């Protein structure tokens, strides 16, 4: 008969535990919807919606210190598919870029052998999606190609770099946080390293400033950090502060605000400073009162001006910027009001909050990583309130917006509550811009809700034992359960099919030393307390029944003040148990009845290793049982005949069997072997309560003290403390010794399965798998060579997979080759289905997106893709997803959901950054231009609509869109900003910048007041006084205008661009000023000036030139150009550009939306190409429909498609 191995499909996986201190910053939540988290040298990929670990990446040898998901800020197609790409960096300086789905490394990067301080992908992805910037200690920034691992450039700086932050509004701006201050880089480019050393500014730490360093006795301290900080005017200086003033830069974090341009936050333990970078001045402070809990981290939001803050007690708070609409002149600084906070965690020495990450797509979920391996997912929920509950607390009310996915909500339209932060709370209103509350708006309050929790293994060491193997008899109810004994006395039982915790049982009061299963659903475990003065301990031996969770002390009252239990061994048939003690003879127990069969005599040899034999007399036992059954049945029949002979034969036999087993207690004969301290092998036979001493084999001279024994079939293997393995072939009576030279053999275990003679060996420095038939090694794992962790326990979990417990707190299920535990995610058997289009094949993801976006071939929207897509094998498992996306499913099937809303919702579902940005701007301007048309306001294409036409329910884009916003709103925002700068100015430099800004904004009266403030001893006193006179006396006469214009152009020609532009703005020649700014490459400044000073027609010309510049090959920011053109209403131009960039689905859907709103003519070619794309994806009905609507351009394609469908 051919030997075979029984196997069940178990994925290689890693069960992780506590997180190392170096892993603290290694967590990231990507646009892909997944969380990556470093745990020692591994990286976990977590799905936050279902709280599952869906992948573990293992290739790093050192602790992971950073992880970053790649950005999704590009157009996705078959050639640029949705892909899960992650960069991770470790403490040895290695960076790995992963293909997460397959679990393989794209490329490995190594520059130095020191921990990477910070890294991030470049967010402007029109040029390349593969660029990764990293900080290599102590002071280098290096730009890498993350696809090939090529170094593009390297730049060093004078100080040690701690971290960096990209400006989310301008890819050429970068801020470095150094050990002494901040370095601002304004010429960052992928093509070449920054040319200059950057602008250095020093941070005068708030606590080192005079307000904080006053002697305590002199004056009573102010009541709270905020009052003290109001005295601190200058926090940013260009001069290096004196050594006395700054002892330590305790700035924890630096980050640009994604919600408004040119703002940055600095985090200190007790305050957050909001800086306006144009003024280099603090314009807002979030301070904690003296009794408050210090900050660890802050995450700024983009959709609303809000901050998620993590405190040292694990509490997450949400602070939202206060609306300034009430009294703009009283605004002294930006105020961030506390709007919600979650519960704190219990902080101990080993349990501390590490980091929070926020969902970048919706910004309404936060994941908190705790040092004990827990990941807590908090979701922000809004609930409407009747009366203003905030009035008592002095907070301005928050209102929910009346639109859904960028479009006003229909009367009976379904919506997804709490979809994202900007659908939960409306805009922060700006002075003079507060709209009247419409009927749809409701006042809301926010609260955090804990929606899921992932917990890891506790601290090592662990004791492992896999349940008995799968056989043909137990195949119907078998579960691959792994029992893990922990240092705190609890036992965790994991189901290895899913990798999820099956049960956690608190069994012991001290560290679990060993576990032995006595059936598929019960096990014995033992634990020993710390020894007392006499070296005696408390032994606990517990029997645990898994289904009920019932535990009882197996040895009854025994166990106090005795030598420690060394090991327990259950016999092959689970009948007997041997308990081996350190300095005391062993005990033999009956497992089934829980009775002590024999306590060996005092002169019994000391046991060093013991193993039960797999051979027994079960067959003869069964014959005995049958005979006993028949005899009992005969006796029972004769008794029954006297009363009634009606009993059935089956019940008689069952009755007889139980009586036979209880009365005669028939037990199979089993054997065990053990060795003593001299290496002599003893053979003992046990049958019932009879124990017989068998043969003794003298010690082998080549072996040291025997440490462990394993026995399977005719093979017996001995391992000693010197690293020798001795293989005995009992049938052939041969023995063979192999020196492994690896030190103490800690444990040896045979693999399950008939005829499977593989052997797993554990040493102090690793493990090996041996084939005992061939007597040769199959695979090896060694600490320091293959892996960085130390093996603490081993077992087989199937016939070809091993399970290892290691000192990094992880339990790994590995193939027999004991290589990495990463696996293909699409082959994995998940308990809950995961919605993540990035896991699909590129073609499947694009098809799914096309299917969800538009179904014009049918009156009703369907979720059954089989109706329109024949090749279903790809999609079978997608439908499982939709069963649990029930709220989204109902909204997608709602007939009132319009095309723009659908496009925006699908881009959110896919986590597509580029799509979301495009459809947000497109939806807003399509509606506002269509609204202007309905009011019969003539709007030529390419000009923003007049102010009166902007009366749609959502009257303006969020300020996070910067120059894409309407001019009126943008202007109001800039005026408010300069007012705040004016309040906060603390030096002549600040006053000068404010005056310049006011002149550009046309606020001449206020500018003159500031110019006249210049003190007489200031070198600029004369110039400023003359400038004030000039501003007040400017007349519109021709000669003065031409003179000023001449002076301005001369100034610009001689390098004084800013001064020349100011003069041109004074004489209302802002259009010329914009042209000069553009000529000298100041494109952003020109766009800003056009927005705040020019009329719609002139502003449109300036912005169109900017769009052309962005499209030029040397700039190549076409995606930004498209957004600029959308804001101007150049819809036809946008449609043509999308088509020429081969973005066929976006082009066709955009044109379709424009046609519905009646703001442009058809571009047939775009419809034809989209039809071609749909046909190639297999969505033939859609292809026919789009081709038929493309006019003459689609006729040929229509014929081809119809022929294909007919065939």
Automatic annotation (TrEMBL):
Q: Where is the WDR11 first beta-propeller domain?
A: 22-317
Q: Where in the cell is it found?
A: Cytoplasm, Cytoskeleton, Cilium axoneme; Cytoplasm, Cytoskeleton, Cilium basal body; Cytoplasmic vesicle; Golgi apparatus, trans-Golgi network
**What keywords were assigned to this record?**
Cell projection, Cytoplasm, Cytoplasmic vesicle, Cytoskeleton, Golgi apparatus, Nucleus, Phosphoprotein, Repeat, WD repeat
UniProt xrefs under Gene3D superfamilies: YVTN repeat-like/Quinoprotein amine dehydrogenase
* Domain (WDR11 second beta-propeller) ranges: 473-818
What sequence ranges are listed for the domain WDR11 TPR? 976-1155
What SUPFAM superfamilies is this protein classified in? 3-carboxy-cis,cis-mucoante lactonizing enzyme, WD40 repeat-like
Q: Which Pfam families does its entry note? A: Beta-prop_WDR11_1st, Beta-prop_WDR11_2nd, TPR_WDR11
InterPro entries registered for this protein in UniProt: Beta-prop_WDR11_1st (IPR057852), Beta-prop_WDR11_2nd (IPR057853), TPR_WDR11 (IPR057854), WD40/YVTN_repeat-like_dom_sf (IPR015943), WD40_repeat_dom_sf (IPR036322), WD40_rpt (IPR001680), WDR11 (IPR039694)
GO BP terms: animal organ development; cilium assembly
Q: Which GO terms describe its cellular component?
A: axoneme; cytoplasmic vesicle; Golgi apparatus; nucleus
Q: Which PANTHER family would you find in this protein's record?
A: WD REPEAT-CONTAINING PROTEIN 11 (PTHR14593:SF5)
- Name of the protein described by the UniProt record: WD repeat-containing protein 11
Organism this protein belongs to? Denticeps clupeoides
What gene is this protein a product of? WDR11
């Amino acid at each position: 008969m051919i030997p075979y191995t029984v196997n069940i499909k178990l994925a290689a996986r890693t069960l992780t535990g506590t997180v190392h201190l170096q892993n603290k910053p290694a967590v990231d939540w990507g646009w892909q919807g997944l969380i990556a988290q470093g745990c020692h040298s591994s990286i976990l990929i977590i799905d936050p919606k279902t709280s599952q670990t869906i992948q573990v990446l293992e290739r790093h040898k050192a602790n992971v210190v950073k992880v970053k998901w790649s950005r999704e800020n590009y157009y996705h197609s078959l050639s640029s598919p949705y892909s899960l790409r992650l960069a991770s960096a470790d403490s040895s300086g290695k960076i790995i870029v992963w293909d997460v789905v397959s679990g393989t490394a794209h490329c490995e990067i190594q520059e130095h052998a020191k921990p990477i301080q910070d890294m991030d992908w470049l967010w402007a992805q029109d040029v390349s999606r593969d660029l990764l910037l990293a900080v290599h200690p102590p002071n280098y920034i290096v730009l890498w190609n993350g696809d090939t691992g090529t170094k593009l450039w390297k730049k060093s700086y004078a100080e040690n770099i701690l971290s960096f932050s990209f400006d989310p509004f301008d890819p050429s701006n970068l801020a470095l946080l150094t050990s002494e201050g901040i370095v601002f880089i304004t010429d960052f480019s992928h093509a070449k390293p920054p040319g200059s050393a950057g602008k250095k500014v020093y941070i005068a730490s708030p606590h080192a400033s005079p307000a904080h360093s006053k002697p305590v006795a002199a004056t009573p301290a102010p009541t709270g950090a905020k009052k003290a900080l109001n005295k601190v005017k200058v926090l940013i200086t260009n001069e290096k502060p004196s050594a006395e003033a700054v002892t330590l830069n305790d700035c924890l974090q630096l980050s640009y605000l994604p919600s408004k341009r040119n703002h940055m936050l600095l985090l200190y333990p007790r305050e957050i400073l909001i800086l306006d970078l144009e003024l280099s001045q603090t314009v807002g402070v979030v301070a904690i009162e003296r009794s408050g809990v210090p900050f660890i981290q802050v995450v700024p939001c983009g959709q609303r001006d809000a901050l998620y803050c993590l405190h040292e007690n694990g509490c997450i708070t949400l602070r939202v910027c206060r609306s300034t609409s009430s009294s703009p002149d009283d605004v002294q600084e930006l105020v961030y009001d506390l709007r919600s906070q979650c519960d704190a965690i219990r902080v101990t020495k080993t349990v501390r909050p590490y980091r929070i990450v926020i969902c970048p797509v919706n910004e309404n979920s936060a994941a908190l990583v705790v040092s004990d391996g827990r990941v807590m997912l908090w979701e922000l929920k809004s609930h409407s309130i009747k009366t203003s509950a905030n009035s008592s607390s002095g907070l301005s009310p928050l209102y929910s917006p009346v639109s859904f996915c960028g479009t006003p909500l229909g009367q009976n339209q379904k919506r997804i509550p709490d979809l994202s932060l900007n659908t939960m709370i409306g805009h922060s209103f700006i002075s003079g811009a507060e709209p009247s509350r419409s009927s749809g708006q409701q006042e809301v309050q926010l609260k955090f809700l804990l929606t899921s929790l992932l917990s890891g293994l506790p601290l090592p060491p662990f004791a492992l034992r896999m349940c008995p193997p799968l056989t043909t008899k137990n195949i119907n109810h078998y579960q691959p359960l792994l029992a893990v004994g922990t240092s705190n006395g609890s036992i965790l039982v994991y189901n290895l099919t899913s990798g999820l915790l099956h049960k956690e049982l608190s069994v012991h009061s001290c560290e679990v030393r060993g576990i032995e299963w006595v059936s598929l659903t019960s096990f014995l475990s033992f634990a020993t307390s710390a020894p007392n003065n006499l070296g005696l301990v408390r032994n606990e031996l517990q029997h645990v029944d898994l289904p009920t969770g019932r535990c009882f002390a197996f040895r009854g009252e025994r166990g106090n003040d005795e030598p420690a239990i060394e090991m327990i061994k259950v016999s092959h048939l689970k009948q007997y148990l041997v308990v081996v003690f350190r300095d005391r003879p062993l005990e033999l127990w009956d497992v089934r009845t829980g009775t002590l069969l024999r306590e060996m005599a005092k002169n019994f040899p000391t046991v060093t290793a013991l193993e039960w034999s797999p051979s027994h007399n079960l067959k003869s036992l069964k014959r005995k049982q049958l005979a006993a059954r028949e005899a009992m049945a005969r006796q029972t029949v004769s008794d029954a005949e006297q009363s009634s002979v009606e009993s059935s034969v089956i019940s008689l036999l069952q009755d007889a069997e139980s009586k036979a087993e209880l009365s005669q207690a028939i037990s199979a004969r089993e054997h065990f072997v053990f060795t003593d301290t001299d290496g002599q092998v003893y053979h003992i036979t046990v049958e019932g309560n009879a124990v017989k001493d068998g043969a003794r084999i003298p010690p082998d001279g080549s072996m040291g003290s025997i440490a462990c024994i394993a026995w399977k079939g005719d093979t017996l293997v001995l391992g000693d403390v010197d690293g020798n393995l001795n293989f005995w072939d009992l049938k052939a009576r041969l023995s063979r010794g192999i020196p492994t030279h690896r030190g103490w053999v800690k444990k040896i275990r045979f693999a399950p399965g008939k005829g499977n003679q593989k052997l797993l060996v554990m040493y102090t420095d690793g493990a090996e798998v041996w084939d005992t038939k061939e007597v040769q090694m199959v695979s090896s794992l060694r600490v320091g060579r293959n892996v960085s962790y130390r093996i603490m326990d081993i077992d087989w979990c199937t016939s070809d997979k091993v399970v290892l417990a290691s000192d990094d707190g992880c339990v790994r299920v590995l193939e027999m080759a004991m290589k990495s535990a990463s696996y293909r995610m699409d082959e994995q058997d998940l308990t809950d289905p995961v919605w993540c289009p990035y896991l699909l094949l590129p073609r499947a993801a694009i098809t799914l997106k096309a299917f969800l976006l538009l179904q014009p071939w049918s009156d009703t929207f369907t979720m059954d893709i089989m109706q329109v897509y024949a090749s279903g094998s790809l999609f079978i498992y997608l439908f499982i997803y939709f069963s649990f996306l029930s709220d989204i499913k109902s909204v997608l099937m709602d007939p009132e959901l319009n095309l723009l809303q659908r496009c925006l919702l699908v881009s959110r579902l896919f986590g597509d950054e580029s799509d979301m940005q495009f459809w947000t701007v497109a939806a807003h301007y399509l509606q506002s231009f269509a609204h202007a048309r309905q009011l019969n306001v003539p709007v030529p294409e390419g000009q923003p609509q007049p102010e009166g036409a902007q009366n749609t329910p959502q009257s303006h884009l969020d300020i996070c869109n910067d120059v894409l916003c309407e001019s009126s709103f943008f202007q109001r925002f800039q005026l408010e900003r300069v007012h705040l700068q004016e309040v906060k100015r603390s030096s002549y430099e600040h006053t000068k910048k404010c005056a310049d800004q006011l002149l550009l904004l046309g606020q001449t009266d206020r500018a003159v007041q500031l110019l006249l403030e210049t003190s007489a001893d200031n070198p600029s006193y004369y110039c400023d006084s003359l400038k004030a006179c000039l501003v007040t006396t400017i007349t519109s006469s021709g000669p003065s205008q031409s003179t000023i214009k001449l002076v301005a152009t001369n100034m610009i020609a001689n390098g004084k661009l800013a001064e020349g532009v100011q003069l041109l703005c004074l004489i209302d020649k802002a259009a010329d000023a914009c042209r000069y700014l553009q000529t000298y490459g100041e494109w952003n400044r020109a766009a800003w000036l056009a927005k705040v000073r020019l009329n719609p027609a002139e502003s449109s010309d300036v912005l169109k030139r900017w769009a052309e510049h962005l499209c030029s090959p040397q700039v190549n920011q076409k995606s930004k150009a498209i957004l600029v053109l959308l804001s101007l209403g150049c819809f036809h131009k946008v449609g043509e550009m999308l088509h020429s960039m081969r973005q066929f689905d976006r082009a066709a859907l955009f044109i379709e939306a424009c046609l519905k709103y009646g703001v442009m003519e058809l571009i047939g070619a775009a419809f034809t190409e989209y039809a071609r794309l749909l046909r190639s994806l297999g969505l033939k009905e859609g292809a026919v429909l789009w081709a038929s609507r493309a006019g003459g351009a689609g006729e040929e394609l229509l014929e081809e498609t119809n022929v294909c469908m007919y065939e």
